[in-house]
Amino acid sequence: MIAATTISRMASSQAPKVLRLRLAGNSSSAPQLKSSNNNYMKRYFTDKTTKEATNTTAKESTTTAAKEETKKTTWWNNTTLWGTAGAMAGWGMSGAAIYDALESSPELISLNMTGVLLVYSSLFARWAFVVKPQNLLLAGCHVTNVAAQMNQLRRAVEYKKENGKDDEVDDIMKKAGATAAAGAACVLGGPMVQSAIVNANLGVVSSIAAAEAGPFTVHFWAPMSKWMISGASFMELDRPTEKISLAQYSALTLTGFFFSRYALLVAPINYTLCSVNIALFGSSAWHLGRKIKADYM
Q1: pLDDT score recorded for residue 106
Q2: Which parts of the chain fold into alpha helices (H)?
Q3: Entry pTM
Q4: Residue pair 262/83 in contact by the 8 Å Cβ criterion
């Protein structure tokens, strides 16, 4: 009787209500109740300890995840930061074309660079729309740049016609027409060719054709168009400094710098875009340095 009373008092302070009700029952079965309730209390406190340990582990996991997330969002790994910086540099390029249209003579316009920039911005407007995360600021700047470069092309063609360079204008227009026709053929026929190569099970060739950044996607051709910009810059390394646009090459240099990092943070990761921006940064910085040295030093 005394044992049952003692157990009842202990249970009343810590055990659940159902345990207290069981203890208040027939005192003649006290030994059996004592054994049963001891087991019950062991399970009760074991479950309580397990729950506390689980909660502690969950809190530690949450803290660890938060620390890892903080590490992931440093400025070096911040996709939004580098994407926005690249877009602003792109807007600088569009602004440079608009500035040149208002302030610079049309004889300073490089038709090679203008044509390349038209193709480049057309492809990158699409790339910025489909890349993950989507970069609408960059897409908008390239749409604007297409319009600005078209105006630059118009000014250059009109200037050459006024100065009797009709043969040069005809050659430019033929090249532009051929480029437009080739681009349209690729857009229209690309999906069918890709499907045929993938379904042919040609091993590595089929794998490359099916890749999410492969040669049948804008993720491949947008960087390739930027190689044309770098190529145009490398072909004109000795261009007279008076024909170098300070605004345009400043924007190109910054674009190359920011996109060298941004290309490694987007999905899919674009190593081709990274490499071409390193080259663009070098060639544009070369022209920019020559221009600054000639005009300000």
Answers
A1: 83
A2: 2-14, 17-23, 30-72, 79-103, 111-130, 136-162, 166-199, 204-210, 218-235, 246-262, 271-296
A3: 0.67
A4: yes
